[in-house]
Structures are given as structure tokens and as C-alpha cells.
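Worked example

This section walks through a single chain of length 206. The input is the sequence exactly as stored; nothing has been trimmed or padded.
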Amino acid sequence: MVPYPSKLLENAVAEFSKLPGIGRKTALRLCLHLLAEDTSEVEQFSKAMMEMRTNIGICSICHNLSDKTICDICSNDKRDISMVCVVESIRDIMAIENTTQYKGVYHVLGGKISPIEGIGPNDLNIHSLIERISKGGIHEVILALPATLEGDTTNYYLYRKMAQYNIQFSTIARGVAVGDELEFTDEVTLGRSILHRTPYEAGGRK
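Given that input, the structure is written out below as C-alpha cells.
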């Protein structure tokens, strides 16, 4: 390990390198960049990080990140609240929103069923989804989970839990390659997958 001229710098590098995808070399470059900035810029950076960590919350309806009790998507009267797109994570909402092709609302599960990883239905935001459906007013549920074994298992579980309700089920078209995560799919492909979604039946077969 390269010796650092300052213990404070070494500590800062160690903290930055804990971030995903940030090695010690990149962490060092970031720290040196902050050292070269005006104190006011660094203070603004630190303040933004602390405000994000302290004040950001979760939407009480869809579980998206939000600065308020209800997120901007759920509270937007121009969105079609009769159409709910079920996604694995908040990053998936960002990916779909970037396509500008979807005008409904969302529901974030917070993961997918994976017995190998010890993740079961009770570990996900499934109960609140069923509650939303049971209140009525929702005509279509789009299952926009990854095209993986775990994603298909979760799709099937959700379909079985909600099959009693008079709603249409669909999945995004498999223009998204099998095994791909939505956040890494290009916007054009993802947008087309939303527009050309297909009806969902048990087992994922038409």
C-alpha cells in the first residue's frame, strides 16, 4: 500500500473506497479533488450528503424514494393511477422514467423472491401491493421484474396472489434479454418493452 502523507487523507480515502465501484486509486483522486476545492464547495457537498441521508424518505404508497410522504409520481394527477408497474428496485423506476414511454404509477417490491438468498414473500413489499389492488381502481398490473429465474418466480407468485381480482396482468416484452437487469438496459429497448408489453399468464406463457 502506498504511504499517505496525512492520516486524515488516508481515513478519507478509506471511507470513499467503501462505496460501490470505488477502488482506493479512484478514492484518492476524489479526495485530492475535494482538497483542491474551496472550503465552501466541500461544505456544500457534505451538507447535500447529510441532508440526503437524514431527510429522504419512502413514499407511503409505492415505496419510491421521496422528500415527502407521497412521491411526485403518485401525487401527479397527470399519471394514470389505474396502471401499476411493479419493479424490483428504485433504480428500475429511474430507468423506466428515462424512456418517457410510461405514464402510469409504480410499486417497488424492494427485491425478488430468492430462496437461495433467504428472501421470501414476507421480506418484500407485497402485502402493500395487494392492499392497493384490493381497494379497486387499478385495471392493469405490469410485472416489470428482471428476466431471471428469481424474477419469473416472483412474477408467478404475484399473479397467483392477485388472480382473484378483476385486473389485467402483463409483462414487459422480452426485448430485454434473459438475465438482464432493467437498470442496465438501454432506454430505447426498455421503452419498447414497456409499449409492447404482453399479457401475463401463470408460468409466463401466453
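What to look for: The domain at 7-55 is CATH 1.10.8.420 (Helicase, Ruva Protein; domain 3).
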